[in-house]
Request: fold
Amino acid sequence: MAELCTTVSPASLQGKRILLGVTGGIAAYKSAELTRRLKDEGAEVRVVMTKGAREFVTPLTFQAVSGNPVGTDLLDPAAEAAMGHIELARWADLVLIAPASADVIAKMAAGLADDLLTTLVLATAAPMLVAPAMNQQMYAHPATQANLATLKTRGVLLLGPASGNQACGEVGPGRLLEPLELVAMVSAYFVPKSLLGKKIVITAGPTREPIDPVRYLSNHSSGKMGYALAEAAVAAGAETVLVSGQVSLPVPPGVRRLSVESAAEMHAAVLAEIGNSAIFIGCAAVADYRLASVAAQKIKKTSDELELKLIKNPDILADVSARPDRPFCVGFAAETEQVLTHAESKLQRKKLDMICANDVSQSGLGFGCDDNAVTVLMRTDAGAGVRQQALPAQNKRLLARALISLIASEYLSRHG
Ligand code: C5P
Reply:
């Protein structure tokens, strides 16, 4: 993580209740600083330590910095009499496990509950953020990677790890992110409910343009960015409709998903929903062309060459933005060169309020990846000029929250 996303994160954690799980690893010493920084932002922090963590740092340290008793044992009559494990699980607005060892990650993936922390993980409904820290070989091990993938499918948000020199003398991914980076990510997670009562329509994923009953033309869009935006829009309080091409992602809680295949179906679904919407985000990778005619039967391999005639698809975003009752319109421009120039010409051509430009030629970012970086181009209030804001590389789910905060503040500055 090169830079911090401090520009649009809501910054304050005032009144937020953070349950910090600390597990065994040399990075546990950084969690004392993390606790202090979370408190500086106004959060109330309660710390739960595993047995391994207590080999590195004492509970007294965390009690002193958090100002609260530290949870260590599941079967502790004194703790159960005060704040027992179920109350603690219900108390949390967010659970952050930092550092998360390979062991706790494996236990979470398996659903084990053999100590206070792993029991809380099962007992809480709060969002879960996990910051892995371990030797780079342990991180790279297929077992750890499979466990992390399992946690991701359950909605756990992974923070890092960073890459670099390790305490064991090796170099590679497995370092705990710095306390300030973790605080910025936790802050970004709590988007203000600025879109309460507003409807937002988001397109996501690829479209499939049928060739015959068994074949289609499509692209590599995974839908991750659009789904992350829908999750963030719900967090901001919006009534959220996600018009989605075919992807293998779970529907974020609170989102109404309309599943479509072709661009024509996506176009029709969006137009049916857009009438009473405040904001439209076109995040889908819509096929520019479709087959002029779809074969009724499977096309047979009867000749060496096959010509397919393609015709242009409707531009969903341009059509929405041309409506007299147009919502606030946001587009995406995935480009491989002259990223900002192409994005700005799309902003003007499609008469958008905002466009998110991303360079899909950078490895590890964009299509199919978990991370993305965008530069947002916004029309100024006067309409003629364009402002820019860069949101650095980060997990798409955090980037989406930063983007929704930015979209909400631009929308509200114009529409109140
Ligand atoms: O023109 P281009 O496809 O590069 O524009 C990208 C932006 O326009 C994206 O926001 C995409 O979702 C939207 N778009 C659309 N309908 C199309 C093509 C693109 O809504 N047919």
